[in-house]
Amino acid sequence: MNIIEYTLLIFIIICLLTMIFIAIYNNFQISLIRIDEAEHNIKNVLTERFNLLDKAREIISSNTDEEKPLEACEKLRSKKLDDVELDKELLPIINEFYTYEGKYPNLKTNEQYMSINFSLDGTESELEAFKKYYNDIITDYNKMVKTFPTNIVAGCSKYKKKPYFEAKKES
């Protein structure tokens, strides 16, 4: 083989390696987009839950003798929390919301209260689905960060392992 053939062979190898690098890099970008999408969906559902509970405060106080129902909800407004922390903080408030139904049977006949109750139940299943989706995406992403040959691209691009969404449920 002469110098032109070696040069051509090296050029072809470099082109193939570049194409592989680009393909792997694009897979990382797709994963990051999916992670952002899942985080956005989780944030939207958590915000919706917070807003429902905030609205429930007025309904509960106007239909019961409770002066400051769901008081912790009011305190959350001033806190700057990430999604996992917000999820943890909302759980006891949601549990408190459901206790009012048992204490005050007249709430079961209140259309607004029951609408919020139904909506909260819907957000629970929606949130669980989004958490599962997020964790599935994170699993795929973390596998790419840790396994060969994608870990080479991860190292060059400074991609690190990402944490799972693991909010602990309080009863």
Key terms for this structure?
5 helices; 171 residues; mainly alpha
How is this structure best summarized?
It is built from five helices and no strands.
Structure overview:
The structure is a single chain. The protein has 171 residues and is mostly helical. Helix content is 77%, strand content 0%. It contains five helices and no strands. Helix 1 packs antiparallel against helix 4 (111-146). The radius of gyration is 25 Å and the shape is rod-shaped. The mean pLDDT is 92.
Outline the secondary-structure elements.
Layout: H1 3-63, H2 71-76, H3 83-103, H4 111-146, H5 150-157
Helix pairs in contact: 1-3, 1-4, 1-5
Q: What characteristic shape results from the CA principal axes?
A: rod-shaped
SSE order: HHHHH
Q: Calculate the terminal CA-CA distance, rounded to whole Å.
A: 74 Å
Could you name the ranges where pLDDT drops below 50 across 5 or more consecutive residues?
Answer: none
Largest sheet descriptor: none
In what range is the share of β-strand residues?
under 5%
Structural class: mainly alpha
Mean pLDDT score, rounded? 92
The percent range for helix content is over 70%
Number of strands: 0
Radius of gyration: 25 Å
Q: What is the helix tally?
A: 5
